[in-house]
Amino acid sequence: MVTNSARLEYQFHVFLLNYLLPALDGDAKTMNFLQEVVDIMLAYIVESFDRSTKVIDFHYPNELLQRNNWELSDEPETLDDILISCRATLKYAIKTAHPRYFNQLSTGLDMVGLAADWLTSTANTNMFTYEVAPVFVLLEYVTLKKMREIIGWQEGRGDGIFSPGGAISNMYAMLLARYKMFPEVKEKGMSSAPRLVAFTSEHSHFSIKKGAAALGIGTESVICIKADERGKMIPSDLERRIIEAKQKGYVPFFVSATAGTTVYGAFDPLMAIADICKKHDIWMHVDGAWGGSLLMSRKHRWKLNGVERANSMTWNPHKMMAVPLQCSALLVREEGLMQSCNQMQACYLFQQDKQYDLSYDTGDKALQCGRHVDIFKLWLMWRAKGTIGFEAQIDKCLELSEYLYNKIKDREGYEMVFDGKPQHTNVCFWYLPPGVRYLEDKVEKMKRLHKVAPVIKARMMEYGTTMVSYQPQGDKVNFFRMVISNPAATFEDIDFLIEEIERLGQDL
Amino acid sequence: MVTNSARLEYQFHVFLLNYLLPALDGDAKTMNFLQEVVDIMLAYIVESFDRSTKVIDFHYPNELLQRNNWELSDEPETLDDILISCRATLKYAIKTAHPRYFNQLSTGLDMVGLAADWLTSTANTNMFTYEVAPVFVLLEYVTLKKMREIIGWQEGRGDGIFSPGGAISNMYAMLLARYKMFPEVKEKGMSSAPRLVAFTSEHSHFSIKKGAAALGIGTESVICIKADERGKMIPSDLERRIIEAKQKGYVPFFVSATAGTTVYGAFDPLMAIADICKKHDIWMHVDGAWGGSLLMSRKHRWKLNGVERANSMTWNPHKMMAVPLQCSALLVREEGLMQSCNQMQACYLFQQDKQYDLSYDTGDKALQCGRHVDIFKLWLMWRAKGTIGFEAQIDKCLELSEYLYNKIKDREGYEMVFDGKPQHTNVCFWYLPPGVRYLEDKVEKMKRLHKVAPVIKARMMEYGTTMVSYQPQGDKVNFFRMVISNPAATFEDIDFLIEEIERLGQDL
Question: Signal peptide span per the entry (chains A, B) (predicted)?
């Protein structure tokens, strides 16, 4: 066996490890290598916050494919080549921490959150049992309880899980609502239930329909409720559609209200919706992926009044709380429901004769088997900031968006997509370049205006100076949707954005 | 506005940032803080590979809750407190890199993979569009193509996605199979389809049933096919059950064959299953979450012969290839199907008038909206090792398991759960302590034996010397399931495991 062993160890060294750990005497080489990678990252971090650097060094896909050798081959590369790849990857990455990166609901880079994510990678484990993730399982328990307290559920009771993103959290909620009403669907499938219908506003996130498609409910059974001009669900329309569905013999089982819509940042009137759900005995879910974090702010949490009456809530700390991606929680009011809905009692993973309290094994209430550790970054950031730190961060972003709104609402060349102060940090507006501004033919004007935002956006990316999102909505042509979740942004960055839009768009 | 701004900046500093970036002049403090965290991690890494340290410093949940202050409060903590929390978290973590940690299918810690995961956290972006993740989207494209080539699909054509774990990958496959046969289910729900039935072996992973429950198909519509004594699906039983289902008027739509079962490490006979699927026109999925990586080994890939005839395959590089958690791929033979199955065309995210080739925007074919970047660690490890490096690593683990098998198969006090050389690294065995070994009453013997593995396992954790999994299966009482996926393990570690089991179990 010795010869065999020696041969294997040789292969091991040559092919696998470049003499890094676990190679014998690999300590020093490993430390050097990891430190070099850390130095590359530290330089990138400092650069990311520097306004004189580009947000993006943009290249078209075919061009980027040719700018570096990205291919995989049979033969190993040297560690120097690996470091070159690390540098190239960061060179062409978007600097999502950049104070002028406004493109997504998730922006910014928190230093404590980042440190926590590095540590999570180093611990390299799975959330399914206390056995393999004792600390992380406890921290999830502590944090979910705290979040439920903030929602306003008595003594923080209830259940919940961190899931891979808001879409999956919303899908969980729909699954639980169905199970609550028709538990037999778990074994017998949808054919054992009557036709189920779900309700959500026309401004809600597409994941509600995606979930319905996956769960075998069907997108046609998701009834879109009218929203008012500010993007809020109209409760009277909800009730009308529920009654209509019942008259057709369908069974309303799920209402997903949105706290912070993707485009307008609108908050559905949760209290009125809760009344309707109670009256008709329907599961009330609140999709607060984007707006849920406003619960952390004493100044803004009134926008979610009524959330305490919901049966479940999606809340993504990776958005407005700037926790590194990804970190999404589903909170559920009823205890034990997730477990009975999802458990399959696989005895090879969830042994019932282990030495510790098995209620800490969370795996069987999940849809996933292995589950990534998403809790530590949120927990550590919470420790570093305290609740009041998150509050200050959120309040600041909202103040910046109000500043933007005040600045452009009467400015020449701008038109707001909806009237009034934004409720979240979403500020939706058109910029009308001089060449479009005075056109009298309205059809021609809209046609031209529709092309303005995409061109300005493409130019922003080519110059690399800033990034902001745009989209059409209903019959409204392309407009900018500015959002602020990056704690690095300042009033001066808002000023810059306005100037940059005008600079890049004035000739259109 | 200046006063306002000044007040905000003050809050910002005091509550949020502890003067870390993006605070003005935060560079030096940030570098120091991150370097301190790195130093804590580097020390942990070196310790993890040191056999003289414990795999785990085990404490019961209530005890662990009291060993540290894990609570979240309103007030911020100092950076020194944060560093203390980092140290405490690692102190009580499982050392999953430890050469004697055999507890899960995912073990080990690859230094290049770890560096890549740190870099991924630093880049902090999302996979949904090329716009926000240009490099990572391209690397996913390159890597999925390479994986499809290795499966044997012509020119690597097809589709795929990295998903949050094997359970979700399997659910994707089932969803695609349903969509392929009854696309109207997407809009109209399961009531528009006849009763669908899926087939998988009795030894398959519980995620197949979990997926069926979620998708509204129902667990009773998952028909469990008999496995032989080695845990392999019996093709004749599969065909019999398909015919039986058809006779009842059900529609067989999905067969999930397993390449590497969780407990026995069995490979279902894919060629025979492919023949049956072809004959009956059923989607063939291969759940290779655990065994798929053997495709990287010229010596072992024959065990998956026939996989090239599958319609889809789950393959988790985070298991046998030791990529950091998590990294799971679903590969699909047909191009375009994922997109049409899952797309909702949300124009606010997937604008159709962007300046670049939109085929690189992968978000609308996913069930998720935001999607974590899981590709970079696999890609960078592949560059560092080459295909032959992964091959050597896999071959070594299989050689170690054969060594274990040879060592215990005729050893006194051991009994193998199934005969013959293991096909994967799973070695399943009972250890019979002297007090149990010679019992004549068979019922009493089994009753006593059932309790042996849990007690030895609990002692392993209390001593912290090693960790290995156990479970019952069918009518078989608790047995050890040894698996080897940790490249740090050596022949000596296998010897140690045997000695440790005997040391800890001799008095039972």
Answer: none
